[in-house]
Design a protein that fits this description.
The structure is a single chain. This protein starts with a strand and ends with a strand. The chain is an all-beta fold. Helix content is 0%, strand content 58%.
């Protein structure tokens, strides 16, 4: 049973920083992609950043240059360093794990709230 648990959300002023963490547990194939998505009220869930098990990264256009995704494969952790936060970054941030085991499977965490005040 794969589980993802996010932490690190909170309230921060515009221009500030936060670091989100996601801890994965369970049996996870070595080849996988972990990522962060976010969803603001009334909006669709959108990609923030993703990182492969080999370290290749991909970022949403709105966070490029401000956010950095990283991972520790040995600890089954993925991190999102968020700098220069803006009020429009306010959303629930979700951790996602994608694996391929006789098919593609996606696992999601429960989400963590990030609120950026102006």
């Amino acid at each position: 049973q794969v589980q993802l648990v996010e932490s690190g959300g909170g309230l921060v002023q515009a221009g500030g920083s936060l670091r989100l963490s996601c801890a994965a547990s369970g049996s996870i194939p070595s080849i996988n992609v972990m990522g962060w998505y976010r969803q603001a009220p009334g909006n669709q869930r959108e990609l923030v950043a993703a990182i492969t098990s080999g370290g290749n990264t991909n970022y949403g256009d709105s966070v490029k240059g401000r956010f950095t995704i990283s991972r520790d494969n040995a600890k089954k952790m993925v991190y999102l360093q968020m700098n220069s936060l803006k009020p429009e970054d306010t959303a629930v941030y979700y951790c996602k794990l994608r694996v391929w085991v006789r098919g593609q499977y996606d696992y999601w965490g429960q989400g963590t709230q990030v609120t950026v005040s102006s």
